[in-house]
Amino acid sequence: MTRMNWAVEKLEKAKADGLFRELRTLEHLKGTSATLKGREVTLFCGNDYLGLSQHPRLKAAAHETIDSWGVGAGSARLIAGTSKFHSALEVRIAQFLGKQRTLVFSSGYLANLGALTALTESGDLILLDKLCHASLIDAAHMSSAVVRVYPHRNLKYLERLLKQSKAKRTWIVTDSIFSMDGDLAPLVELVTLKQRYGSYLVIDEAHATGVFGANGRGVSEHLGVLEKVDVHIGTCSKAVGALGGFVAGASELIELLINRARTFIFDTALPPSICAASIAAFDLIQEEPELRKKLWRNVEHLKAGFENLNLRVPNVCSPIIPIVIGDEKKALQQAQALLEEGFLVPAVRYPTVPKGKARLRLTVSSAHSESDLDRLLEAFGRIANAPRTEALFA
Ligand code: PLP
């Protein structure tokens, strides 16, 4: 084996800059409680917003399907990988969102790559919000379209780009909840712009499905523009509690993706058991709005607690609460201080967020008890007095 000295140098540099990443192995996980290096910790970092990954109905659906269908799907969807569970999940999501059709991919990342590369072609223009998720950025750059990035939520700038566009087709692409900042895209205004300039609107509801809207359909439902969105992308890996991405919209959109989306065509299908679990999750999201209400009560509880502590948090408008520290090493120290208190809240750093904008990214779930939230707030209160954590406070 040839030693990769250049790799060692790069890793050393990442360490010196506070940008080194390491895997953390959980020895046990139950809801929001985990064991890490033999210690109990409470997770405030997952995306299982409704706690559905641990729900008995999802587990039962997955177990039964493994017993009858086995573990892996064995081939790609267009070969022999489409089980009745894949088809049923696609019908279930379409019904849930009130869209004509849905196509399921193996992950949200692959749904974004597949959709943008299949839908756009040379002569097209993709307009991306600067804070879009990495999968949308990668997708845009893998496509044959010209890509322009507009400053975060800056509608004036976006409109200027739309006005100048001579593209064959123009695609406005945005997260609906921004994954590292927790704020919402101005979807009502984006719909107005896309209608005014005859472009298409593509939204990624990854963090919003099951969380936002009277029925949990996402921010597009919450803001009353669900039917106006052209390409509605989501994932079953977050509030849905399982795995897999989806694209929902008109029948011709889905037919085109089946024929052209490379991450769909050349990828092994999701295990049938995972699709069965996701179907159970969509049923629960519809039948048990209390789960969503509990999540929002938890968000409000933490928000009020942070305000009492004078903690530097931005306007909290979703279960994603970023506490921006700035310096990468300080963010790591503060994550470590919280870990010592028994809470896993990761320090998110470049390239996930811009350099110098490192943060603690805290996420809330309906599975957190009030006592989990109060213990976390008490821990923040205690570390307030430690000199190394002063950057947390206003
Ligand atoms: N889109 C957004 C906004 C995300 O935050 C993520 C995951 O973190 C994805 C897409 C990818 O989804 P998945 O984890 O299902 O691949």
Elements, N to C (H/E): HEEEHHHEHEHEHEHEHEEHHHHEHEEEH
* Estimated structural class: alpha/beta
* Span between termini: 52 Å
Major sheet: arrangement of strands: 4-10-9-8-7-5-6
- How many structural domains does the protein architecture include? 2
* Residue runs with pLDDT of under 50 for 5 or more positions: none
What would you call the shape? globular
> What is the CATH architecture assignment of the largest domain?
3-Layer(aba) Sandwich
CATH superfamily of the largest domain: Type I PLP-dependent aspartate aminotransferase-like (Major domain)
Total count of helical runs of at least 4 residues: 15
Helix amount, in percent?
Answer: 40-55%
Number of strands: 14
- Which CATH top level class of the largest domain fits? Alpha Beta
- Binned strand content: 15-25%
Radius of gyration: 21 Å
Cofactors, ions, other ligands: pyridoxal-5'-phosphate
Task: Give a verbal description of the structure.
The N and C termini lie far apart (52 Å). Strands 4-10-9-8-7-5-6 form a seven-stranded mixed β-sheet, with helices on both faces. A four-stranded mixed β-sheet has the order 1-2-3-12. Strands 11-14-13 form a three-stranded antiparallel β-sheet. The protein folds into two domains: 14-43 and 289-392, Alpha-Beta Complex (Aspartate Aminotransferase, domain 1); 55-287, Aspartate Aminotransferase, domain 2 (3-Layer(aba) Sandwich), CATH 3.40.640.10. By secondary structure, it is of the alpha/beta class. Helix 4 (84-97) packs parallel to helix 12 and helix 13 (289-309) runs parallel beside helix 15 (370-383). The radius of gyration is 21 Å and the shape is globular. The protein has 15 helices and 14 strands. The structure holds pyridoxal-5'-phosphate. The site of pyridoxal-5'-phosphate (PLP) has 14 residues, from helix 5.
